[in-house]
Amino acid sequence: MLSRRSLLASAAASGLAVAMPRLAAAQTVGYSQFVNPMIGTGGHGHVYPGASVPFGMIQLSPDTDNARWDACSGYYYDDKTLLGFSHTHLSGTGASDMLDLLVVPAIGEVRIKPGTLADPEGSYRTAMSHDQEHSRPGYYSLVLPESGIRAELTASARAGLHRYTFPEGKDAHLLIDWAHGFRNYDGSATKIIASSIELRENQVLVGSRQVRQWAQGRYIHFAMKLSQPAASMTFYKDDTEITGATTYQGQSLKVALHFGHGLKGPLLVKVGLSAVDIAGALKNLDEDGLGFDFEAMSGQAAAQWDTHLSPIEITTEDIGQRTAFYTALYHAQLAPTLFCDADGRYRGMDKQVHQLEPGKANFSTYSLWDTYRALHPLLTIIDPPHAAAFAQNLIEQGEQSPSGPVIWPLQGVETFCMIGWHSAVVIAEAIHKGLPVDAKRAWALYRQLAFGRNTPGLNAYRGFGYIPCDLEGESVSKTLEYAYDDWAMSHMAQAAGDYMSAAILRERSRNYRNVFDSKTQFCRPRLMSGQWALPFDPRSMGHDSKRWWDYTESNAWQATFLNQHDLYGHIGLFGGDAAFEAKLDALFNAPSDLPPDAPPDMTGMIGQYVHGNEPSHHIAYLYAYCGAHYKTQARIREILKTQYRAAPDGMAGNEDCGQMSAWYILSALGFYPVDPVGGVYVFGSPLFPQARVHLPAGRTLTIRAEGTETKPYIESVTWQGRPWSRSWISHAELMQGGELVFVMSDKPNPAFGFDITDRPPSFQFS
Amino acid sequence: MLSRRSLLASAAASGLAVAMPRLAAAQTVGYSQFVNPMIGTGGHGHVYPGASVPFGMIQLSPDTDNARWDACSGYYYDDKTLLGFSHTHLSGTGASDMLDLLVVPAIGEVRIKPGTLADPEGSYRTAMSHDQEHSRPGYYSLVLPESGIRAELTASARAGLHRYTFPEGKDAHLLIDWAHGFRNYDGSATKIIASSIELRENQVLVGSRQVRQWAQGRYIHFAMKLSQPAASMTFYKDDTEITGATTYQGQSLKVALHFGHGLKGPLLVKVGLSAVDIAGALKNLDEDGLGFDFEAMSGQAAAQWDTHLSPIEITTEDIGQRTAFYTALYHAQLAPTLFCDADGRYRGMDKQVHQLEPGKANFSTYSLWDTYRALHPLLTIIDPPHAAAFAQNLIEQGEQSPSGPVIWPLQGVETFCMIGWHSAVVIAEAIHKGLPVDAKRAWALYRQLAFGRNTPGLNAYRGFGYIPCDLEGESVSKTLEYAYDDWAMSHMAQAAGDYMSAAILRERSRNYRNVFDSKTQFCRPRLMSGQWALPFDPRSMGHDSKRWWDYTESNAWQATFLNQHDLYGHIGLFGGDAAFEAKLDALFNAPSDLPPDAPPDMTGMIGQYVHGNEPSHHIAYLYAYCGAHYKTQARIREILKTQYRAAPDGMAGNEDCGQMSAWYILSALGFYPVDPVGGVYVFGSPLFPQARVHLPAGRTLTIRAEGTETKPYIESVTWQGRPWSRSWISHAELMQGGELVFVMSDKPNPAFGFDITDRPPSFQFS
């Protein structure tokens, strides 16, 4: 495996190639075969089934809908009609955008309106079924039952390639819908600020648009080449035919490419995209050097996936688990996405065009509120070059952004999605783990956020030590998450040598205490007056949900455990280990009912534990801190078994750009980063009898857990052949490689991890 | 008195005239006769004896020294030689600057070097004695024993007039030393960045210089006219004669004006100054329209003083007390000083030239760390137009200043002197008292200070809730004073309608608690770790005075009572009334010894109460809050009697631009603003059997305290003829006018002010 790591390392060193190693390393194992990209396309998983390379710019995928929560990815498994195939998709999000440049292959009469799921009549929507649908990493195909057209899709880093095989003897055309995009949930259209389409020599179609959807005002340009010429083209503006020009401008532009009966064999359509300009899109189209060679391109994509799936080898007899695991590893490497052109230009967070320094890349689609928890930690183990590149890139994006440190950057635009500034966590973790990230530069950026930014909420946070619920919505969750970000920033300051600021932020990170009500033992909304808001029901979203929620996609049950960094201080609030353990038990055993206004994200419930949404993700590991590690083991095993299935609706909730999958991967390996910044992992209950993790510099971490299939409990542990009484291990230790052996049992061993000295460290600068 | 108030009001309305009503109102009483400006020129009072009009730009006064702490004003009573007469002086400060344009009248050989106090030989220093020295408001005269020259000085708002009567038959000259200024305490010269002198037509001398002394880089220009022509002039650069030009430039420029034996009668020298330019200085010179008429000008100055001294009429048989009182009222109106030209131009805090809007004025020399306590509150009673103009001007200066809200602005430069941002207090008080000050504009300026400014100290204050003593010097005092400024800013925010910020700051203003050690019952230096620094001695300046002090010109004894706004919260920290009262008793009864490194400011000690410096000024009034008001009465009377005397060394400490005097005036009247922002006054022990305070709109406040000369205790009080059981009264009540009668006793009445409901409000938005 050495060569694979070296490959990645050199890819990282050469910058742009980070996201797209050109060679399929001979040593890699064909794990792509174990991936089923359909997992999570149903339920509330929100993933797309189409073609992308690891961290690629293009996600060429079918669109079944563009206007509702469960179709955030443009595709929902249960939908019965198809719109067409577009080039950009979000993986597992709960808000949406993108779906750029819809290509609709069809026969006969040209239909230019998209219709709706409910009323597809007369539109270009066509029936679809999963009978003749195939998806694997980097490849997607579908035969459309109404027309008989076979559509196949693949991608390279910056280009998408379509292959359409039309039934012989039919009048073939493609409709290109440049007004297509993710609509608002109320059905109102994507707002196109301006767009254009131009027909150039040799039937090269190019176009530009600026879209104001989730990302307000992002730019996207395309270039399209055809393997066979169209007999003619018809341009439409606002669904009316327009002629007499080669360039058209407007807000709703479409073009029909008429091939009549003249196609000889499959029609290949290649598309390059760029957020910079059309010239960039054209270069991106040609960058892979593979022209219209579909097999070469899909083969290269598969090889790249094999490379990216090979860092972890698991041994299991359970095909469902194996599929779930490698599909998770696949989903964990779809985002962040490459967001720079072949020539090194990119659209920065200031919406200006920048030129990358050699050896660097720029990325987009950082779902940080989710991914700081497990995805970025996972990458620090299996792909340190990308982990470092993302962390450093987040600093650069924050420097460029008019709003400073990034929250949820999408295609050069800050969406301000969710709460907190968890980019700080990703950066602090990378710094703490010794990745090449510029701590001083990071701290120069975040220092202003930590101390200087002047908003009512932040002022209240600093002034009261909490955000009053009569000031701002989601005040409890914000207080708790700002506290964690303070912890992250304190590490950043420490690394930058600003010890004083580090100490201040470390202290301020204990602000979580100010929303904990020791009487009810819940984190509760608190008024400016200092009093707890009434009425209080731990299942409710807040004290006055008509006005706003006090919790972010959660309620007091989950928020009460929203502490990742000062567990011993936290446990003290409850009155000690026993009370804390009892409260955790109560969480998992509470009735699972939620009020009617609960958000759809709150799924995957075990009691009031909500695995389908991120605020719960670390909670089952918290038993380790009160000495009841066996309860962590039991709960983790339960979650692994009940919340993930190898089926389209097999995800308990939104995949969230890799977070739900990364939880599974790490938990299945047997450990999880409750506090990513702290750099330690708490043991859970390893799912496989053996797993091997290939680390940098040729090291291998081997995890054994013989008999674990029927024995969920840890009897004892050895590390490097010696007894290991702790319920945790550090990142530095893991990264040495070696043997971590779990002796499993079908009965709990309450003594394991019970001693104070065996419990995980917390609130420590290590 | 109506017309006087109306005059002031209309003067305020007409702007520039604020500082210089042209007419001597016929109704005013000649209280100037009771003023002795020599009080405070000795001891550590630091005042100057020369001529100024109320709040005037010019302070034309003799200089005996320019290089040591007790000569901050340029004059020290015990000095035996004189340098000459210069035009600008600070009144009672502990840091110094100014002394612009020294004029040295002499006979015989020209001596151009200043010499020193210790070695005057061969220099232009000349012997001086107090035998033929006279000082009264707006007038100063001295006969120099060596030469027999009589020097007389007077001033209008922007010009100074000298009258020199040379002995007949002597070869007379004036030396003009344009390199003179306040030196560093080590004796090194004032740093002149650049200066120039030019001789214009009709022997008008003009010049400019930029000085980097306390105020780093202030500009000053002069214009000088003579009533009789000089026979010749000799220019010197670096003490070497230079010729052949009319303009000279350099860092040390002087000029000798030779009159030979040709003078006919007294020589008059008139000088205008400007921080803007020479044209401004020339206009300022001529503005008063009085030419060389010395009697008219000194008469006008006396009349202006009579006007400004007339708001308070006291009845007393004690001539010493009467002198002390009216001299205090005189000293209380020397600063802030006018800092704008006759044409409305002025040098702003950005060092740029600005033009005033009609009806406005600009001022300098705001010794805010001192004067927020009693001087500005006094002015809200006796001179609301100036109180409002100062508060509004502080907003404008903060808007102009590159460092934002002002701290100690001097001549268009922020000196950053002392700690905190007490301009906030002056502004908040003015707003609270209903003066015409723009609250929204103020809050827009201070909001950034409250929440946005990003310095290690402020970050620590907001993060830890205190400033750690291992981070910054004077951390205890800073924490306490920042807390009080938070209180002031919370009122500002409230008035501007930003209720949330008001609530945050109100809460944050309780940060004083974080430096209170309940075990020792002292405010103590605290480490970043949260622990109290060791060793601890309540008399010491700090735990490691080699590094820095932890207290600002104070020690733990005074700092422990540095709370002006949340007294009931503060008392709670001690454990209640009895403990707090005992601690106050302990303060006044402790041995008065101080460590060797204590600053010279800590004078006027009663136990460890330090009346000579400002942090103690409110403390004797605190007994009112624990129900032991009779102890306030006793201590106030003691301080009034022992800390002020009608003698050159009669001030207990630095006069500090009016603060020491304002304390005396208010306390002698019988009340004091423990919390200026809160707008209430705590009773003390009225000094005079009767005092009448003339208020706006013709109202009069009459305070009676029959027999008070021998009866320091309050037996009971009536207000408007009705019993008044409270130990306090509000500003709004006082400003209605009426009768406040104290029934005095020679025995304490512990019942007075004892009931909770009779104690002063604190920590209230009223």
Automatic annotation (TrEMBL), chains A, B:
A single Pfam family it belongs to is Glyco_hydro_92N
Identify a single GO molecular function assigned to this protein: carbohydrate binding
Keyword list, A-Z:
Signal
Q: Which organism is it from?
A: Asticcacaulis taihuensis
Domain Glycosyl hydrolase family per the UniProt entry, residue ranges? 281-745
Q: Name one GO cellular component term.
A: cytosol
Q: Where is the Glycosyl hydrolase family 92 N-terminal domain?
A: 34-274
Task: Extract the InterPro entries matched here.
Answer: 6-hairpin_glycosidase_sf, GH-type_carb-bd, GH92_a_mannosidase_put, GH92_N, Glyco_hydro_92, PNGase, TAT_signal
**Any idea what this protein is called?**
Alpha-1,2-mannosidase, putative
Give start-end of the signal peptide.
1-24
Q: Name one GO biological process term.
A: glycoprotein catabolic process
